[in-house]
Amino acid sequence: MVTDNNFFMSLALxxxxxxxxxxxxxxxxxxxxxxxxxxxxxxxxxKKAGNPHAEVEALKSAYYKLTNDSKILELSKSADIHTFLxxxxxxxxxxxxxxxxxxxxxxxxxxxxxxxxxxxxxxKKVFVGSRDLNPEAACGNDKLLACGIEVQNDVLKxxxxxxxxxxxxWKSNNFVFFKWAQRLNGTTDGGTISSKDSRKNVHAMxxxxxxxxxxxxxxxxxxxxxxxxxxxxxxxxxLIVSREKEFDKTxxxxxxxxxxxxxxxxxxxxxxxxxxxxxxxxxxxxLSREYVDFYLCYIAPKIGGDDGLKKIEDNFEILNIxxxxxxxxxxxxREV
Amino acid sequence: MVTDNNFFMSLALxxxxxxxxxxxxxxxxxxxxxxxxxxxxxxxxxKKAGNPHAEVEALKSAYYKLTNDSKILELSKSADIHTFLxxxxxxxxxxxxxxxxxxxxxxxxxxxxxxxxxxxxxxKKVFVGSRDLNPEAACGNDKLLACGIEVQNDVLKxxxxxxxxxxxxWKSNNFVFFKWAQRLNGTTDGGTISSKDSRKNVHAMxxxxxxxxxxxxxxxxxxxxxxxxxxxxxxxxxLIVSREKEFDKTxxxxxxxxxxxxxxxxxxxxxxxxxxxxxxxxxxxxLSREYVDFYLCYIAPKIGGDDGLKKIEDNFEILNIxxxxxxxxxxxxREV
Lengths: 336, 336
Prior knowledge:
homodimer, 336 residues, alpha/beta, Cytidine Deaminase, domain 2, Dihydrofolate Reductase, subunit A, 8-stranded mixed β-sheet, 29% helix, elongated
């Protein structure tokens, strides 16, 4: 195993993918900081809109690792961490290098700009995966260079671009992902398939989705709630794709406060939404095929059941595999 | 992400699992070396019996990383690397720490003892996952301690014990693993499923297996060769599990030189072999269930096909997931 620039960027990538689907409307971003002698000081990611950016999370961890000053651990707001670091950094970052999957932002939005912070701390070198797509946030590299910080672009660029792709889609249009849970032998029928951790992960994604798409048959048979109760989150609007428009309105999903439920035989309404999760099995897979950008598959390490995705042929590119306590979580793109 | 002792041991583990099934009759072992300030100097594994042990591979890489002396890169024999390091180490390892999934050997066998080498180089601290099961090789820790090297045992012990389990089985009896290849949707029928890299990996395993088990129906339908031609390896003996004893002897597997082919309706003959791979689908899965120690599943990231492992219910513990260029390679144990 070679511990080169790609290795450190891959740590940042791995961490960032854990939060893919959870950072909307922000991009998933990961950051790794190493010392002069290449010891790892921090590997962090952006977890949720409103939370600190990946670079700020990583600078916080690295500061603690270098100083043992636990005061910084009490801070969770980005502005507070910025202020603290600017006051207390004592030039400890002068010899560090930062690997970030995305060019540091230069825009003062909800949080101050990462490029300004990194410049003020006098970091030695910044390795960048993808360039920023957001015209408001771009020019991070220019700010760094203007302050005498070395910048190296395009480190694992393709992989970083994959990570960033949903963000690009939100910016230009919308992002649609198809999520399904299966056993190792491909079956999707029968009782609960996924672990509690996987189901919490799905609820956390529902919390930041604005539309959830599901098939009429699933609604009739499973009578689901489709909320985000496992994470105390908000329930997204629901599109039920069904030719038959009549539903028993005592099915729980119809009685979630503040939610709009749309019944339609097509996906037209999706154009009014930005972050869209489709949940389903073989039928919905086929119906939605032309609208889907990414696929998210939860695999439970068991065999059993009878029925799954069949009579369909597709090839995927695996973008990331993560094993949580029990299940495998896999992001993919369909090869076209 | 926390970069603690567990992190460095997990790098060693990850590297070692790449060679699980290939190191027979030696254990799969991984090793990570870090500097005083915790920068990663090497992550290596034992690749094949006769090749250097993981510690020697890692010390070689670390030496090169610390000195830039490329002379060591020309050496591949363990004895040569030992001799070179003992002569040229110049105390550069005095401040390094070693993470090894298995207690360093103390036995001078095909290669000199790793414990002796580490002691002579004056490494600062050794972190050990599993203790050695082999009475001839054990006492590595004692040698290290006697030379004033700090030793910390049981780092990710359970995971290291999982990695070591096939070796324990070879020592006491034999190791039987069931290998299958499937698409993401669980199907095992139709044309070639796995990538070329996966198939090469399987051939490399056949090369070190002494028995390959396969079902009679598969032999009749697929007319396989079951050799290790993709890696220029040797072909193992074959057990065809079949009630019907007559086979068309022009099927290629019957005509591989130096191979014994046994046809039987049971698995009795397995007791005469040490390292046994069963290849098959649903039928063989059920037939062999009580004999199997580990499961090895290759998942191609595509959907298609019709038929797979069905009418069976089992839960697995995932021991390792590795993504090669295209497919997923997964080692598992069945939960009992």
